[in-house]
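Shipment paperwork, digital attachment
Item: protein structure file
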Amino acid sequence: MDGFCEQVVKKKRTVKDNIMAVVYILLTIGLPVLCIALAYVIVAYFIYIGLFVLIAMVPLSIWLISNQKVEFEYQVVDDYLLIDKIVAKRKRKKIIRVKLSEIKDIVKFNEKYTGKKINKYFLCIDEVNNPDAYAFVFYNEARGNCAAVMLPNEKILKGMRPKLLPEMQLKVVKMLRGE
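Attachment content:
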């Protein structure tokens, strides 16, 4: 193994995530209360149904809230850029595996890409409007032109630079200098 660099980017909680967590908690409390209220109107057995719903909803809501914690892991291993999505620190999904020599262009993500049309964007960042986000453009036989949008730090950029094409190495050097 020639080199190994990695970076973990945590996705920040949004307002939508907070609202969904409140909804999960309200449903966990509200459904058993509704069953108990129906027990006085319809049949007393609804109290048992409410108890079972409560027992089922508590772990379900805890699991759903913990699944909102998302991280992206960028790795440079030998001649490959690997990006994984980690959900709740227990489930890992491979997003892309691309050879560094196959990266055709590196552009700021908020700028328009003026080259070939991009068929698929792999968004591996916490917010789309981040000014530090870069799109690494490559070609995939199944999907055509693709772009991996990520927030690489200095360590990742230095790890990828020797394996990139010469014109891409110049762009990485400019990125490292802050130009």
